[in-house]
Amino acid sequence: MLSAKSLFQEILDNDESYRLFCSIAASGESQGGWENARIAALVPASERRLAPRIARHGADEDKHGRIFNALMKKRGLEPVEIPPDTDYTMLLERYGIGLAHEKLKDDQPLTVQDIVTYLAHSRVTEQRASEQMDLLRKHFADHPEIGRAVKMISGDEDNHLAYCHEELLRFAYDGHGRAIQRTLRECALAEIRIYRDVSLAVMAHMGRILGWSRARASVLAAGIHAVYAYERTAGWRRMVSLRMPERRGALDGPATAAPEFA
Asked: Are 97 and 121 in contact (CB under 8 A)?
């Protein structure tokens, strides 16, 4: 039976597919760490209270990148260069989602609107990350090789999502509500399209590594297109709603240390 659990188990059991999966994940998390670190350094003076939380967000993402690299090292694998069509963060930036890297490489302070854009982008992408890690936690929390990593990263992604909700609501109360909703909708509609394209690319690369039949590859592609059709018509709305999280100040304090995988 083809299921999310059986599909990932097949990827996990093969060194080459596992290496590609971890390399893609490590690259995306490390890129997110860099972006958040730069945003924390460029926060405008009026929003300096946010800098430690943004820095904590970046430290978490950087930690996740190190965890995926450590998982490969534990199996005696080296990271592989990821195919451009699987680079989710690069494609988001290319399509204008979030803050442009050229702006982040500059030393000019960001504006309040830049911070709102960053938070709206993060709210959308952290929704995706939280859902994906929740799925892995559901099926692999007790796995001897990846269980601890899955639980730690899943908890961090939930915290990131809570932080985005809390801060965006604060900005909405300060009069940025219309800009937030407009940016959230634009980001969500673009993200679901990019997520579809990246998912198709990842499955194509995995299929070649694992020798999937044309029929199986077609079934998986059809499933990805079906998810996109649902998200395009109604599912995107879950990415733009805002509610005050039960846990306030989810990113207060230092990042937790990565577990040892030696």
From this structure: yes
Phi and psi angles of residue 259, each rounded to the nearest 5 degrees, phi first = -70, 160
Distance of CA 118 to the CA centre of its chain: 14
Using CA atoms, how far apart are residues 185 and 236, in angstroms rounded to an integer? 8
Query: Cα separation of 200 and 83, whole Å?
Result: 12
Own/partner long-range contacts of 228-237 (Cβ < 8 Å, ≥24 apart) = 228/192, 228/193, 228/195, 228/196, 231/192, 232/189, 232/192, 232/193, 235/192, 236/185, 236/188, 236/189, 236/192
Per-residue confidence in pLDDT tens, the chain, 262 aa: 578 899 999 999 999 999 999 999 999 999 999 999 999 999 999 999 999 999 999 999 999 999 999 999 999 999 999 999 999 999 999 988 889 999 999 999 999 999 999 999 999 999 999 999 999 999 999 999 999 999 999 999 999 999 999 999 999 999 999 999 999 999 999 999 999 999 999 999 999 999 999 999 999 999 999 999 999 999 999 999 999 999 899 999 887 877 776 4
Crossing angle (nearest 10°) for helices 147-171 and 112-140: 150
Q: What are phi and psi of 61, to 5 degrees?
A: -65, -45
Q: Which of 192, 228, 190, 199 is nearest to 97 (CA)?
A: 190
Question: Quick count: other Cβ atoms within 10 Å of Cβ 215?
Answer: 8
Collapsed DSSP state (helix, strand, coil) of residue 21: helix
Residue 71 CB-half CA count within 13 A: 26
Global pTM exceeds 0.90: yes
